[in-house]
Amino acid sequence: MKNLKKRLANGETLLGCFLNLGSPLTAEITGRAGFEFAVIDLEHGSGTEVDVLSQLQALEATDAGVIVRVESHERQRAHRVLDLGAEGIMFPRVDSTADAAGAVAGLRYPPEGVRGVAAANRACEFGSTYREYMEAAATTLLGVVQIESTSALASVDAIAAVDGVDVLFVGPMDLTASLGILAQFDHARYAEALEIVSAAAHRHGKALGVLMAQPEDFDRYHALGFRFIACGSDGTLLNTGARRQMELLDAARTKAS
Predict the structure, then answer these.
(1) Could you tell me the pTM of the whole model?
(2) 44 an active-site residue?
(3) How many beta carbons lie within 10 A of that of residue 123, not counting itself?
(4) pLDDT tens-place string over residues 53-68
(5) Which is it for the CA torsion 239, 175, 79, 124, positive or negative?
């Protein structure tokens, strides 16, 4: 464990990156670049649950804590990757308190939750430390819920009040789409939505997270209290770098001809 939950509780600002290629190599590159957390994306990424293990192993020797974004808050989606050793779960499309409560239940063992009990898995060293792991899970596993719709915005105060929700994570693309202003991040309606989420998080002592489009957006979100900040993904970084490299090469070739 890389203590993401504890560090956020202490008020640290953590910088991260999404992983959507399903590759342990790009995961390792991300971790070695210095990112403090990585989000393995099973909602929109090209990898599957089969690919989670190799990415976790690739990141283990780096300083990056690993969160997995699952496809839904169904119990088996969360506990499979937790058993592999994920440090927390990001739940998409959390629109209500019922959704939030269901998500949190998947992070916790009975009687507080519904996570299946399995002692011989990777998270507890294949049975060697299962009691220690089970006792610590409630205080170490990070619960991240995504606020990305008008329904979630309307219920955000109640969602933030749910015990076990540690981070309210804004998904800018989905939220602006739901608001009818797709990708208009300078729009007054989006600014108002950020203020509403920020206020709810502060009222209930929860951390704020966001996936930024570019590093230049940092000051805006940080000023609102966002401390769990991701920017880009392995796929977008590779795409941007490859296209820029090709532009430079093509310009050099044109100049030489």
Answers:
(1) 0.96
(2) yes
(3) 22
(4) 999 999 999 999 999 9
(5) positive
